[in-house]
Amino acid sequence: MSKVLIIGAHGKVALQAAPRLAAAGHEVSGVIRKEEQSDDLRDAQATPVVADVEHLSTDEIAEVMRGFDTVVWSAGAGGGSPERTWAVDRDAAIRAVDAAAQGDPSRFVMVSYFGAGPDHGVPEDNDFYAYAQAKTEADVHLQATDLDWTILQPSALTDDDAGVHGIEMGDGVEAGEVPRSVVAGMIAAVVERPGATTRRVLAFNGGEQSIDEVLTPG
User: Fold this and answer.
1) Whole-prediction pTM value?
2) 126: CATH
3) d(CA 25, CA 192)
4) Pairing assessment for the beta strands 166-168 and 200-207 based on DSSP bridges
């Protein structure tokens, strides 16, 4: 199995994705900003790597990634100021993509959001614009590389799965909600299935479709 590095590993989604990846046999490490978050990473079966990617150069991020096969970008400013949103969700994400493109890793899984894209339609005077545009620019930058990329676009995140363990995905599906546990399952599933998910943008809600069935070629 592969060596997987999760950036933004102390987030609610990442802390659920790490043990799923470990259970599948992957060697998982997680990038965190604070040393005191390390025990949470170990509890999630991931090796902590303390590094603040918001303030690292491309070359410094490349050094953090050295030796890994797959990187999962699950970091974000978390609804902070527009300045931090640009700095993390766009600028740091783009530097991470460029770092991976230097050689290690070859596989890049980007956690974006349902609706990201040049036609996201969010006006510049809207509070959500910085996030929508930052994620869009990072996604577009990734798609222009030679990396084996997958972009996950979950809809609005919830903590209550309410018995929802699958997804809703496909033509005509509009943004709704998805439990964070399901997003974690999608991260693990696409890492497991590079052949079926590389160079794909996967927008999804929580639903009744089995993730395995949707992502496994017929």
Assistant:
1) 0.96
2) 3.40.50.720
3) 10
4) antiparallel
